[in-house]
Task: inverse folding
């Protein structure tokens, strides 16, 4: 149980990275499978070479930034479809990761890692390590929250939301796309570096299928926390990762084999994507139509101001705002359908 | 202010689908000119605006804004001169961002974007003042996501976002065409107000002849990529829809779109 929580929090770093590309930039980035291993491989080989584990982790982040940037270059300057650009980088990274490690598996036995202080004090698997990891991942989360509300961050959000508009406002969308992909894969490589040190080895196949784990985390988190604003959405991604690990933990407890975990993950994502379509969890904004333009219009009650405005009895808080909000709610529905048809035209 | 010198644009050159959208077109706008552009479907009105904004590259000729040659400049760099409103009310705003975030994005049009806070209280005060001029009550809903607004509200917001940073040139591409008559009238009024308030140099494409006559100080009529009729400030004062239709009927084979006739 404690192990699952620890893993969930560490993988939260990757979920935050996937959130950046998948939800904010609206870009299905498959680089993740490769850049995760790149992070682990870079950190492990540097640690074995005697480098300070914290510096090695930083270097891993740098490697991830480069990997993401390459995917961005292929997509923006090369005009290659986003999915394919990610796959190309991911496949290419397989060989690079082998070069970095020199062999398929690098054990970190008796090496100092960033987890050594926790391990020596027997704090791993206790509330202490969970608290430490929680604080660390929350710092990452708040860094993303802050970044996305800066002028540059707003431009990145708009890039994923309405590219034509933000270009007409003078933003070089190529640059913002590449920057976001780089940052995202930096987070993913950081996660890979931490996982390698946590489990005590780096392995060439440690990243296989991870994009799905990231997606599962983001989707689960969104189902529970909603995506009203950046704060809740990034918190959702982080906590979604923890929830995912707990589900896996329970599945293993229930007698499933570790070999079944990839299938379990895939089914989890399928179920999370299909449930809203069948009418369950109506409030979960749909991920089937990537980008929640249509969804945000279809669920107007999700907006707290609007919902509150419609229900505020006259005479209480701000009456004029409440009064104008009622027709706005109805018009929002038309805006939603218009947005949906607009998407079809795209 | 804006100088367009014999520009041409051909789509699908050398194929059976070849279409000359602009043919050696020249146009000059003085400071504070408000020019309305009318013409049949496929006359090249939108293409003209898209070549000015840099969305479409031109084949030949030159475009100068404020003395700077811009025809080789990418779209995002030209944005520092241009405010734009599109026909589609969904096109000019980011639906998942709030009203204040959209305005912040517009405030930084054409400027470097750094790591400063996007929505400061100083900016919020400015936004409230600007939104109040729309008289739609949006100043009390700064934190509402734009996707929840109606088409008319979104288009009014787009117009404000394009105009409140005083662009050198304001480009309006049939920005009332997708709205119902009532909302269209509202947005037309706002256009008048925003343009005259700051004396913005404006180029407005429209299908609506009444609107083309009512707004602005000059009018041009386009057909098959050329300007076929111009009304100067003096002529425009006495211009009627009938005169325009007369001008149009002089063209052999030219037909007005149904929408233009209905208007």
Result:
């Amino acid at each position: 149980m404690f192990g699952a929580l620890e893993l969930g929090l560490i993988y939260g770093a990757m979920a935050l990275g996937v959130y950046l590309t998948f939800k904010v930039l609206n870009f299905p980035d498959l680089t993740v499978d490769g850049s995760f291993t790149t992070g682990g491989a870079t950190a492990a080989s540097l640690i074995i070479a005697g480098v300070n584990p914290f510096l090695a982790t930083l270097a891993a982040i740098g490697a991830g930034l480069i990997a993401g940037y390459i995917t961005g270059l292929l997509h923006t300057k090369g005009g290659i479809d986003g999915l394919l650009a990610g796959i190309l980088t991911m496949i290419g990274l397989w060989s690079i990761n082998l070069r970095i490690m020199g062999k398929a598996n690098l054990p970190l036995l008796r090496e100092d890692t960033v987890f050594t202080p926790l391990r020596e004090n027997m704090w791993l698997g206790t509330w202490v390590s969970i608290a430490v990891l929680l604080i660390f991942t929350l710092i990452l989360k708040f860094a993303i929250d802050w970044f996305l509300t800066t002028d540059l961050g707003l431009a990145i959000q708009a890039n994923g939301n309405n590219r034509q508009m933000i270009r007409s406002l003078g933003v070089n969308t190529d640059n913002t796309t590449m920057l976001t992909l780089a940052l995202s894969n930096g987070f993913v490589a950081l996660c890979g570096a931490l996982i390698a040190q946590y489990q005590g080895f780096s392995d060439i196949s440690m990243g296989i299928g991870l994009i799905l784990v990231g997606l599962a985390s983001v989707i689960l988190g969104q189902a529970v926390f909603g995506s009203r604003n950046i704060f809740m959405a990034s918190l959702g991604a982080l906590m979604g990762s923890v929830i995912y690990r707990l589900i896996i933990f329970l599945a293993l407890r229930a007698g499933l084999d570790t070999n079944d975990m990839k299938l379990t993950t895939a089914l989890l994502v399928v179920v999370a994507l299909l449930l809203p379509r069948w009418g369950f969890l109506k409030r979960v904004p749909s991920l089937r139509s990537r980008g929640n333009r249509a969804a945000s219009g279809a669920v107007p009650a999700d907006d707290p101001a609007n919902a509150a405005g419609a229900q505020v009895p006259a005479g209480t808080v701000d009456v004029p705002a409440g009064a104008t909000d009622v027709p706005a709610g109805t018009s929002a529905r038309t805006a939603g359908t218009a947005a949906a048809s607009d998407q079809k035209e795209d | 202010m804006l100088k367009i010198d014999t520009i041409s644009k051909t789509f699908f050159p050398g194929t059976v689908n070849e279409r000359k959208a602009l043919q050696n077109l020249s146009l000059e706008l003085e400071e504070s000119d408000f020019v309305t552009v009318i013409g049949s479907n496929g006359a090249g009105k939108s293409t003209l605006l898209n070549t000015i904004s840099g969305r479409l590259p031109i084949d030949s000729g030159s475009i100068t804004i404020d003395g700077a040659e811009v025809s080789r400049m990418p779209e995002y760099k030209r944005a520092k001169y241009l405010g734009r409103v599109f026909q589609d009310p969904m096109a000019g705003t980011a639906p998942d961002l709030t009203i204040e975030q959209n305005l912040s994005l517009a405030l930084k049009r054409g400027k470097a974007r750094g790591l400063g806070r996007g929505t400061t209280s100083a900016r919020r005060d400015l936004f409230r003042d600007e939104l109040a001029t729309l008289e739609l009550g949006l100043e009390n809903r700064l934190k509402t996501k734009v996707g929840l607004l109606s088409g008319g509200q979104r288009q009014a917001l787009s117009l404000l976002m394009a105009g409140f940073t005083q662009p050198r040139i304001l480009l309006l591409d049939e920005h009332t065409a997708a709205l119902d008559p009532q909302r269209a009238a509202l947005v037309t009024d706002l256009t008048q107000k925003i343009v005259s308030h700051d004396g913005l140099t404006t180029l407005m494409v429209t299908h609506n002849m009444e609107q083309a006559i009512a707004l602005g100080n000059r009018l041009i009529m386009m057909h098959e990529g050329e300007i076929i009729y111009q009304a100067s400030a003096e002529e425009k004062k006495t211009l009627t829809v009938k005169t325009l239709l007369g001008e149009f009927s002089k063209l052999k084979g030219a037909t007005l779109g149904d929408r233009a006739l209905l208007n």
About this structure: Residues 286-346 of chain A have pLDDT under 50 and may be disordered.
